[in-house]
């Protein structure tokens, strides 16, 4: 912009730099600085207060030897994979249904998406009530004559994660549906005409033509769901608070409890570092494919 | 796909080509049938919340949760709003509501203001290194908050903001920045560059162009950002519980404490009224904003 005079490079475009200061500070101090700080402190034996008393990987050894953490990881893996599979499938199917040039499309979309506006706390509490064995679904089925019917996911350690999954899916599938619908709308109508002329049934067109074309949309949805899953916290707190016993603990809750309840900062730091690593495992290949690949094309 | 094919022929050849459509074809019945069932499933929790909150406790103990209320009573609502207890405090949810409002207004205003200027600088006044910071910022959106929350506690304590309203506003501004900056950057990039150049030729500077040209042209994106932030901040739980003290707990935290408190008899109708009261704000925004809400979340989702 300033070709004629070249005073000091630092002061060129000064206003823009000043305006971008909050962003620069956030990026450097919070996102990089704070993350590095936590990672460094995860190698110390900080308890109540953070201290630089290095103990190597001791916190991590303890972490992976803790029953509660292992349950958390197991839950997260199960919840994560199920909610990925279900929200992608259900979201895509619903989007296909809405894409059939139906009437009241807006009404249906509004209804399916509204839970996404609600907080996880509200979601968790509603489903806690619906799944309440004394009054909710179990009670109703029993009163219909099936007196042995059992449906108490929130009180049964073996299936509690399903109870959370039901609530999580109710809240989030609408969002995936909207992304998928936008993807479907982005598909050229000529594709549909061509496949119709060739006499290909529409389900085949969906599977063999449309889905491969929507690959970027699926990947975006996948990354968004995955990044959200690792953060799962409020839903569990509201619905079960980790119970019964430790059965529905999740890593985010482990971190919070270690840092702010059990005064075991080192454990919290180590656990959050593991959480970060698990996100990076997903994020880096995606970023590489998405942005690295794009540069290569142009 | 019979329907859509007839539609496209209508567009191309006019009335001549229109085939009479059967409204009740098996295909339509199936599509609408499935959609109706799905819609019922999604609406059920909302219905249960409303129905339960309007019943008295005796009716809840006898009946089932899906039955419509017989004796409609608004007492649970009143109780949830002004008498429900968390620990020793029995002021009801109203306190949490006003706390949330106090948190919401400055957080939304400041985060949007800062992010819009950031986005504007990134879109129109590119400087060396800007893209690097922006990439870090976008990556930051995916980093689990858990890894940044404790250093943030120390940081706020050093500033003397820990447990205060200002601290939480700062936290919301920082963690809302990636998505908002992306939103504004993409919007400002999409505006015609000639506008910016013309203003430059006329001698307008950085702030002049922002306030006199960009700002008036981007009201829609400000509305989208507001919807995004209002629902996001209202629904926040994690930051509220970490960075505020019990007196200043936002509504979500207080709601959770009321419903999941272990003392006393459980009053399910009051709990549901409280839950509904907390959900009302984002729901009203959602239903009132319609397509803009979708645009907001889609803008957040689809990278530019």
Automatic annotation (TrEMBL), chain A:
Q: Which residues form the ABC transmembrane type-1 domain?
A: 73-286
Q: Which InterPro entries match?
A: ABC_transporter_permease, MetI-like, MetI-like_sf
Protein family per UniProt: Belongs to the binding-protein-dependent transport system permease family.
What kind of membrane protein is this, topologically?
A: Multi-pass membrane protein
Q: What is this protein called?
A: Sugar ABC transporter permease
Q: Which Pfam families match?
A: BPD_transp_1
Q: Which organism is it from?
A: Maritalea porphyrae
Give the transmembrane region(s): 20-40, 76-98, 110-130, 159-184, 205-230, 268-289
Q: Which UniProt keywords apply?
A: Cell membrane, Membrane, Transmembrane, Transmembrane helix, Transport
Keyword Transmembrane helix appears in the UniProt entry: yes
Subcellular location field: Cell membrane
Q: What is the lineage of its organism?
A: Bacteria, Pseudomonadati, Pseudomonadota, Alphaproteobacteria, Hyphomicrobiales
From TrEMBL, chain B:
On the tree of life, the source organism's domain of life is Bacteria
UniProt keywords (A-Z) are: Membrane, Transmembrane, Transmembrane helix, Transport
UniProt keyword annotation of Transmembrane helix present: yes
- Residue intervals passing through the bilayer: 29-50, 103-123, 132-153, 165-188, 209-234, 270-288
SUPFAM superfamilies according to UniProt: MetI-like
Q: Which InterPro entries match?
A: MetI-like, MetI-like_sf
Entry membrane topology: Multi-pass membrane protein
The biased composition feature labelled Polar residues covers 1-11
Family, similarity comment? Belongs to the binding-protein-dependent transport system permease family.
PANTHER family tied to this protein? ABC TRANSPORTER PERMEASE PROTEIN, GLUCOSE IMPORT SYSTEM PERMEASE PROTEIN GLCU
Q: What is this protein called?
A: ABC transporter permease
What's the source species' lineage? Bacteria, Pseudomonadati, Pseudomonadota, Alphaproteobacteria, Hyphomicrobiales
């Amino acid at each position: 912009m300033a070709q004629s005079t070249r005073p000091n490079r630092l002061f060129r475009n000064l206003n823009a730099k000043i305006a971008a200061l909050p962003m620069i500070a956030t990026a450097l101090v919070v996102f990089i600085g704070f993350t590095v700080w936590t990672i460094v402190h995860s190698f110390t034996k900080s308890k109540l207060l953070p201290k630089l008393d290095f103990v190597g990987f001791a916190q991590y050894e303890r972490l992976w030897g803790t029953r509660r953490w292992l349950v958390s990881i197991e839950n997260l893996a199960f919840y994560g994979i199920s909610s990925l599979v279900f929200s992608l499938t259900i979201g895509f199917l619903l989007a296909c249904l809405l894409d059939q040039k139906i009437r009241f499309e807006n009404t249906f979309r509004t209804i399916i998406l509204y839970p996404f506006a609600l907080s996880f706390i509200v979601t968790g509490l509603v489903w806690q009530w619906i799944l309440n064995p004394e009054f909710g679904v179990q009670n109703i089925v029993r009163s219909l004559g099936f007196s042995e019917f059992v449906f108490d996911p929130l009180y049964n350690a073996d299936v509690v994660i399903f109870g959370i999954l039901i609530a999580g899916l109710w809240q989030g599938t609408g969002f995936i549906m909207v992304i998928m619908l936008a993807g479907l709308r982005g598909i050229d109508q000529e594709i549909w005409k061509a496949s119709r002329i060739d006499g290909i049934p529409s389900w085949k067109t969906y599977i063999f033509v449309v889905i491969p074309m929507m690959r970027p949309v699926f990947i975006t949805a996948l990354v968004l769901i995955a990044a959200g899953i690792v953060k799962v916290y409020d839903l569990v707190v509201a619905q079960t608070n980790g119970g019964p016993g430790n059965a529905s603990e999740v890593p985010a809750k482990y971190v919070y409890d270690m840092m702010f309840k059990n005064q075991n900062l080192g454990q919290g730091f180590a656990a959050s570092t593991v959480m970060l690593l698990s996100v990076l495992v997903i994020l880096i290949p995606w970023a590489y494919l998405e942005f690295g690949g794009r540069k290569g094309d142009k | 796909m019979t329907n859509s094919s007839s539609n496209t022929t209508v567009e191309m050849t006019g009335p001549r080509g229109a085939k009479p459509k059967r409204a009740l074809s098996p295909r339509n019945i199936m599509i609408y049938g499935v959609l109706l069932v799905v819609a019922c499933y999604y609406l059920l929790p909302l219905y249960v919340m409303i129905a339960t909150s309007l019943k008295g406790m005796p009716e809840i103990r006898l009946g089932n949760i899906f039955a419509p209320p017989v004796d409609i009573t608004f007492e649970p609502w009143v109780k949830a709003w002004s008498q429900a207890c968390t620990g020793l405090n029995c002021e009801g949810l109203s306190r949490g509501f006003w706390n949330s409002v106090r948190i919401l207004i400055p957080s939304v205003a400041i985060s949007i203001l800062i992010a819009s200027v950031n986005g504007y600088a990134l879109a129109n006044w590119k400087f060396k290194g800007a893209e690097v910071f922006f990439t870090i910022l976008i990556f930051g959106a995916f980093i689990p908050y858990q890894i940044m929350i404790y250093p943030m506690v120390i940081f706020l304590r050093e500033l003397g903001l820990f447990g205060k309203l200002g601290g939480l506003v700062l936290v919301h501004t920082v963690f809302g920045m990636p998505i908002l900056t992306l939103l504004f950057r993409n919007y400002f990039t999409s505006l015609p560059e000639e506008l910016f150049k013309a203003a430059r030729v006329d001698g307008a500077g950085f702030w002049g162009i922002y306030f006199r040209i960009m700002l008036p042209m981007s009201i829609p994106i400000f509305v989208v950002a507001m919807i995004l932030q209002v629902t996001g901040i209202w629904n926040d739980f994690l930051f509220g519980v970490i960075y505020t003290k019990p007196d200043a707990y936002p509504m979500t935290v207080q709601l959770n404490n009321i419903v999941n408190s272990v003392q006393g008899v459980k009053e399910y109708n009051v709990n549901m009224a409280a839950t509904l009261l907390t959900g009302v704000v984002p729901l009203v925004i959602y239903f009132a904003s319609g397509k803009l809400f979708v645009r907001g979340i889609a803008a957040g989702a689809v990278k530019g």
